[in-house]
């Protein structure tokens, strides 16, 4: 079926333009100047963008389905404007076998929601000792190798992983924290943690591990034969870590990075109330760190915005700050949050913001950009700038709580298309 979105404003990494009449059919954008269609949608006042890709979501399947599963997680993604999601492998058991990757992809395809791209464990059991069968995992459909949730303590194993992944054309993502510095920290280390009597996780823990991993990358580049080792730094949270990455990029190292919506909009000050809702790993940092991350988005040091969607049960998040698990669910609010807080309130360029949800993450995975042009795949999101409050009780995710509950946000996805097929529709 062909359908037409009329009078809609277009925004992608190349800029803003329109209004246009976008004709969609056969899974493609057929025209930007209208045409015959079985259904027409009035897009006046709305924005049309390429579908988002999330590099970092915890969908909890297999083994932790009480927190989230593919059906709820991929529906939450579709409602957040995501057409594609990279799921993390720190499940129960960890995703280190090709048959599990294949089964997850097959189940996601049957669900027909956002498309799933599983990440696989870099090491067996995510134990950091022996590499997982990376070639077989890649053949099964893994797009990324990572022990996310755990840090790679053995530099030699990480180097071997970078070399093997390079031969497969696949990046390796790292949770960059030095565990001996982090210890049992539950919030940012500093005066506030001291005042609250809580163990701190110092910014130096992130910077020290980024510095080491960049040296491991240099070694892998020198020893590589066939393919280029690529390192991706997950959930960057500190100004010093950003500076190290900026220096590395200037030196031409093949390193990329992501930042999360929570590190871009919240700071350690939220922990004054001792509410574990704000407990994440790495922790929320200072306002200076937050501002530095925004600058990193603007100057290209940070390549992508990734959610680090990390759902837990309500009972778990109601434990005290020392015992509650780390993590915030945010697939459904990520774009509206940053559209409002960065673009509307902070003047952040809209096309650059959209690029961080689209071209940036696609480039990390080695995928071509997806722009609004005739002949392009019709994986799209229609956005409504009108404000409404965040209501976690309406989330598709099983985690129906949010640190942004009650915040009034604009930029809500009202239609998400995967290759021309509607996977989320909330048009009035």
Short note summarizing the structure:
The chain is of the alpha/beta class.
Walk me through what this model shows.
This protein is an alpha/beta fold and 428 residues long. It is 32% helix and 21% strand. The protein has 14 helices and 20 strands. It has helices at residues 70-79, 98-111, 134-140, 155-168, 179-182, 191-196, 203-223, 239-250, 261-265, 287-299, 314-317, 334-344, 350-357, 359-364, and strands spanning 3-12, 15-25, 28-31, 39-42, 47-50, 52-57, 82-87, 115-120, 144-146, 172-174, 187-188, 200-201, 231-233, 255-259, 304-305, 380-384, 388-389, 408-409, 412-418, 421-425. Strands 1, 2, 3, 4, 5, 16, 19 and 20 form an eight-stranded mixed β-sheet that branches. Helix 6 links the parallel strand 11 (187-188) and strand 12. Helix 2 runs parallel beside helix 3 and helix 8 runs parallel beside helix 10 (287-299). The longest helix has 21 residues, at 203-223. The two termini are 21 Å apart. The model has no long low-confidence stretch (mean pLDDT 97).
Write the layout of secondary structure elements.
Elements: E1 3-12, E2 15-25, E3 28-31, E4 39-42, E5 47-50, E6 52-57, H1 70-79, E7 82-87, H2 98-111, E8 115-120, H3 134-140, E9 144-146, H4 155-168, E10 172-174, H5 179-182, E11 187-188, H6 191-196, E12 200-201, H7 203-223, E13 231-233, H8 239-250, E14 255-259, H9 261-265, H10 287-299, E15 304-305, H11 314-317, H12 334-344, H13 350-357, H14 359-364, E16 380-384, E17 388-389, E18 408-409, E19 412-418, E20 421-425
Parallel strand pairs: 1-4, 1-5, 6-7, 7-8, 8-9, 9-10, 10-13, 11-12, 13-14, 14-15
Antiparallel strand pairs: 1-2, 2-3, 5-16, 16-19, 17-18, 19-20
């Amino acid at each position: 079926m062909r359908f037409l979105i009329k009078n809609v404003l277009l925004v992608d990494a190349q800029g803003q333009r329109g209004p246009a009449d976008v004709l969609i059919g056969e899974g493609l954008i057929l025209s930007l100047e209208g045409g015959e269609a079985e259904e027409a949608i009035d897009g006046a006042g709305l924005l049309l963008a390429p579908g988002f890709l999330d590099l970092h979501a915890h969908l909890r399947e297999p083994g932790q389905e009480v927190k989230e599963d593919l059906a709820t997680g991929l529906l939450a993604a579709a409602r957040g404007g995501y057409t594609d999601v990279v799921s993390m492998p720190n499940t129960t058991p960890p995703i280190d076998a090709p048959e599990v990757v294949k089964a997850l992809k097959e189940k996601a395809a049957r669900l027909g929601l956002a498309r799933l791209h599983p990440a696989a464990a870099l090491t067996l059991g995510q134990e950091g000792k022996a590499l997982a069968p990376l070639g077989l995992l890649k053949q099964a459909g893994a797009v990324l190798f990572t022990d996310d949730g755990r840090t790679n303590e053995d530099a030699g194993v990480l180097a071997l992983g970078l070399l093997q992944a390079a031969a497969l054309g696949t990046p390796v993502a790292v949770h960059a924290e030095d565990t001996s510095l982090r210890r049992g920290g539950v919030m940012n280390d500093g005066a506030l943690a001291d005042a609250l009597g809580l163990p701190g996780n110092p910014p130096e823990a992130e910077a020290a591990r980024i510095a080491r991993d960049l040296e491991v990358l240099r070694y892998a580049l020198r020893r590589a034969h066939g393919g280029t080792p690529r390192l991706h730094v997950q959930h960057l949270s500190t100004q010093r870590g950003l500076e190290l990455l900026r220096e590395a990029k200037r030196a031409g190292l093949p390193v990329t990075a992501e930042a999360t919506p929570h590190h871009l909009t919240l700071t350690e000050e939220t922990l004054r109330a001792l509410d574990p809702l704000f407990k994440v790993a790495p922790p929320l940092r200072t306002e200076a760190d937050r501002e530095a991350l925004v600058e990193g988005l603007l100057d290209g040091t940070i390549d992508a915005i990734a959610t680090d969607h990390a759902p837990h049960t309500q009972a778990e998040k109601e434990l005290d700050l020392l015992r509650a698990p780390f993590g915030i669910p945010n697939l459904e609010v990520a774009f509206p949050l940053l559209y409002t807080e960065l673009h509307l309130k902070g003047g952040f360029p809209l096309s650059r913001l959209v690029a961080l949800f689209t071209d940036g993450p696609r480039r990390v995975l080695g995928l071509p950009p997806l722009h609004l042009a005739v002949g392009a795949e019709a994986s799209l999101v229609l956005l409504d700038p009108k404000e409404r409050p965040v209501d976690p009780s309406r989330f598709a995710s099983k985690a129906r709580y949010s640190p942004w509950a009650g915040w009034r946000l604009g930029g809500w996805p009202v239609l998400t298309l995967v290759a021309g097929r509607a996977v989320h529709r909330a048009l009035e």
